[in-house]
Amino acid sequence: MVDERPAPRYGWAFAAIWLFYLGENLNALVRTPPGWQRSVGLTALAGFAVVYVLVLARVRHFQGLTHSSPAVSPGRRAWWNPFAGWFTPGDEAAFAGGADRRERLVIWVALALMTGLGALQIPGAGPHALTCLVYIAATAMMGLPRRQGISVAVTLVVLAEVLLRTLPSWKTAGHGYSLAIVLAAIATGGIRLALDRQRRLQEAHHEIAALAVADERARIAAELHDILGHSLTVVTVKAELAQRLLDVDLDRARAELRDLESLARDALADVRATALGMRGISLPGEIAAARQALAAANVEADLPGAADDVPTRNRELFAWTIREAVTNIVRHSGARHASVRLTPHQVEIVDDGSGFGGPVGAGEQGGGQGLAGLRRRAEELGARFTAGDRENASGFRVLMEAPS
Questions:
Q1: Cα 86 to Cα 84: distance, rounded to the nearest angstrom
Q2: Is 361 helix (H, G, I), strand (E, B) or coil?
Q3: What's the distance, Cα to Cα, between the start and end of the chain in Å?
Q4: What are the pLDDT digits (tens) for 282-313?
Q5: Closest C-alpha to 132, from 258, 19, 277
Q6: Which ranges of the sequence are coiled-coil (predicted)?
Q7: Taking a C-beta distance cutoff of 8 angstroms, is the pair 177, 131 a contact?
Q8: How far apart are CA 300 and CA 338, in angstroms?
């Protein structure tokens, strides 16, 4: 069975580049006189670095740094992922705020192992071994649910302060380690939030695409059924009639055959028109897609329940307007609430996000190809298109008014 999730290609490398901060530990251990303290410390340092890179690269939030790649089989995944056997397809349904139970267990085991390996460096590296606490805090913030990660980071700060204040030989080391732990936790937490948002945006785009494809397939299937079902029925009846008339009324049989040819050509033209219209979209489908996309992006949505009152000539234009406006809301606005107001002759999409900083012209940088495309569609159909910041509130407003 093929695993459809992209293989993490660069996550391990991004984790590894931060290992240079362990140079302080390495320098202290190398300067330690030969003995068990030095040997054990260097071995523990190497093991600590390996565990940190492998575990952090495996964390599901961290994989937002990777790019899409072709699907790979579980056998191919195994060579680069030492934890591949720990994760089953069911594990992929992790909730947005943290990893599932099995991955969380792996993170806790890794944190305990990293703590032990860090402690083994103390005899040789002394207070420099506290640098390991920075990496442990970063791993906890990235891999555990947010509250648990914060609890681990606070515990590590307290542990560092206790050791620095109680061990006589460590009192001169200062309190930079505690500050480093705090900064690492804040930075990693921010990265995690950004990656969560990126993942949700990707899911929203995929959902929009899937709904659009499903709706288009259903539309084409219905149109082909209506076109071919009716046309082939009439063709069959006329063919039977022409066959019976061949021996009775040759002129009338020829007339029926001419009608038969005309019907066949009309049916072929209708099928071609349907095929050429495959890029069209439906208004109900875009409303449903908008609901899914906004929900995936944690945007509260106020959407119309139906589009029956909208004339057929306006539906495709309004559907494109909703699609582009919702895409911009999900991508750029940072909005918490969005609404779509639909009438027979206009559609208005409003959000409470950051806005753009004024009206968006057709050629202005930042207006986007999508909004420029909507403006062109509106001009071709004689409609009026307006897009810009809301006048008396924060956010953005898109309005498409079709001619009456």
A1: 5
A2: coil
A3: 55
A4: 788 888 878 877 876 778 999 998 887 888 88
A5: 19
A6: none
A7: yes
A8: 6
| pLDDT 10s digits, 47-81 | 888 888 888 777 755 544 444 433 334 443 433 34
- Of 327, 364, 348, the closest CA to residue 397 belongs to 348
- Cβ burial of 213 (10 Å; 0-12, 13-18, 19+) is exposed
- Pick from 202, 124, 384: nearest CA to 132: 124
Nearby residues of 58 by Cβ (< 8 Å), 6 or more positions away: 8, 11, 81, 83, 103, 106
Cβ contacts of residue 182 below 8 Å, gap of 6+? 153, 157
Report residue 398 as tokens: 């898109």
What superfamily in CATH does domain 282-404 come from?
A: Histidine kinase-like ATPase, C-terminal domain (3.30.565.10)
What amino acid occupies position 366? G
Cβ atoms of residues 339 and 302 within 8 Å: yes
Q: Which of 161-165, 250-254, 260-264 has the lowest mean pLDDT?
A: 260-264
User: Which residues pair with residue 351 across a beta bridge?
Assistant: 338, 396
Q: Which residue type, as a one-letter code, is found at position 219?
A: R
Residue matched to tokens 């979209």: 281
* Complete DSSP assignment for 228-250: HHHHHHHHHHHHHHHHHHTTT-H
Choose among 154, 82, 79, 139: nearest CA to 108: 139
Total count of residues recorded for the chain: 404
340 strand-pairing partners: 349
